[in-house]
Design a protein that fits this description.
With 409 residues, the protein is of the alpha+beta class. It is 25% helix and 26% strand. Helix 1 packs parallel to helix 5. The radius of gyration is 21 Å and the shape is globular. The chain starts with 5 loop residues before the first strand and ends in a 6-residue tail after the last helix. It binds flavin-adenine dinucleotide.
Length: 409
């Protein structure tokens, strides 16, 4: 297909955020095109690996439960539009000290947004979730009945399909090289042609900085890991070993869920914010290695989840793209109103992708937003740098990273 044409909006990058933005824009009857550098639902970015956790009582920001609620409505709408199962709400348990983030943060989020969660005593946690060992005697839990899992590859395909049904044009296998201002809009340049658009949504994930100079969004490598049960596979299926987030230390949690979709249990340790080298997504090390990818988690599993074989059955590299404060960048770029961002997932973005797509679509059309968006506005850091002061290599890196809570699920 020849790359060319005039559009109301061009969406660059059709992963989690971009595919949803394309759908929400196309649903409004706008003339839209989406451009993806690889094939749809590929495994080279941030949206592969069969599952992502879903929660309503999100603890990463007080406003996120409203975004998750809006997203759930849109996930269900997308399922109905495409006849696809995308979101399976199994319920989930958050485990840890009563004052820790996993438990107290979930309770706070639920209280603020009137979400029904149930607090469990230490004895109730041990009785209902016997797979979890090594819990401190005072650790309790919060049961979130709305938690569950999403299917990322199916979701990307479904959103692009739904966008196509509403008239969107899709160019895959085409890399955007530049977005040049052009009067009131922009020219989106590729090796094989150019597209003219009034607005451009840049949703390029780990590649966000390549097309929008000055944006602060740092990709880091994080592995996806699956672990087989040692001797009781039935104890680690999704219905018996559902979604969980478990306190590890002040900064980090262990997260995961039971076997499903032909894969064994998935478990991760959120990355240590103090030791995350920024990576170049075009030169990511895609091999997996025990020392780098799972040695630490394997040692933890021996005492925390002893029913799992601590050597992973499967491992795959993935990337998280961190903003300066751990929240997404969704909305116009300061000083470049023709360009909007939808990115900086900060490790917890998949569940919110339709809500972020909707925010961007409303920003394009000027419709009022249905949820609070100030904490996602690329201009929230002030100054002229979308997404805040550059973190790379600066002393402030430590400060900025300590303040944020990346790598949640
Ligand atoms: C290990 C791990 C576990 C996670 N767990 C969870 C979880 O449980 N729950 C949750 O909600 N979130 C989770 N996340 C976060 C979630 O996966 C991300 O928020 C989400 O996938 C990010 O989507 P994105 O659209 O920003 O990036 P992507 O999905 O990677 O999309 C960006 C797209 O842009 C394309 N692109 C880039 N540059 C160009 C260009 N120049 N031209 C054309 N196309 C381009 C890329 O090829 C890619 O397809 C996890 C992330 C990781 C790494």
């Amino acid at each position: 297909m020849t790359v060319g044409g005039r559009y109301d909006v061009v969406v660059v990058g059709l992963g989690a955020f971009g595919s949803q933005a394309l759908w929400r824009l196309a649903r409004r009857g706008l003339r839209v095109a989406g451009v993806e550098q690889f094939g749809l639902a590929h495994a080279l970015g941030s949206s592969h690996g069969a599952t992502r956790l879903f929660r309503l009582a999100c603890l990463e920001h007080p406003e996120l439960p409203a975004l998750a609620t809006a997203s759930r409505r849109l996930w269900r709408e997308l399922e109905a539009a495409t006849g696809t199962d995308l979101l399976q709400q199994t319920g989930g348990i958050m485990i840890g000290p009563p004052e820790g983030r996993a438990v107290a943060g979930t309770v706070r989020a639920a209280d603020r947004h009137a979400l029904a969660v149930t607090t469990l005593s230490p004895a109730e946690v041990s009785e209902r979730f016997p797979q979890h060992a090594g819990l401190a005697p005072h650790w309790g839990g919060v049961w979130d009945p709305d938690a569950g899992i999403l299917r990322p590859e199916a979701a990307v395909r479904a959103a692009v399909e739904a966008a196509g049904a509403s008239g969107a044009t899709v160019f895959d296998g085409v890399r955007v090289r530049a977005i040049d201002p052009d009067g009131s809009g922009a020219v989106v340049r590729t090796a094989t042609g150019a597209l003219r658009a009034d607005r451009v949504v840049v949703s390029t994930g780990a590649w966000l900085t390549a097309l929008v100079p000055g944006v602060v969004a740092e990709p880091v490598r994080v592995p996806l890991l699956w672990f087989a049960a040692r001797s009781d596979p039935a104890g680690f299926t999704l219905d018996r070993f559902g979604v969980f987030i478990r306190h590890y230390d002040e900064e980090r949690t262990i997260w995961g869920h039971g076997a499903t979709l032909g894969e064994p249990a998935k478990v991760g340790l959120s990355p240590d914010p103090r030791h995350q080298p920024r990576v170049d997504p075009d030169h990511l090390d895609r091999s997996v290695d025990a020392a780098t990818d799972w040695a630490h988690l394997s040692a933890v599993l021996g005492s925390a989840l002893p029913g799992l074989d601590p050597v992973p059955a499967r491992a795959a590299p993935c990337m998280i793209t961190n903003s300066a404060d751990g929240q997404f960048l969704a909305g116009p770029v300061p000083g470049r109103p023709e360009v909007l961002l939808a990115g900086a997932c900060s490790g917890h973005g998949f569940k919110h992708a339709p809500g972020v797509g909707e925010i961007v679509a409303r920003a394009v059309t000027g419709e009022p937003q249905e949820v609070e968006t100030g904490y996602l506005d690329p201009a929230r850091f002030g100054g002229d740098r979308p997404g805040g002061r550059s973190l790379a290599g600066a002393d402030q890196l430590v400060v900025g990273r300590t303040a944020q809570r990346p790598g949640r699920s």
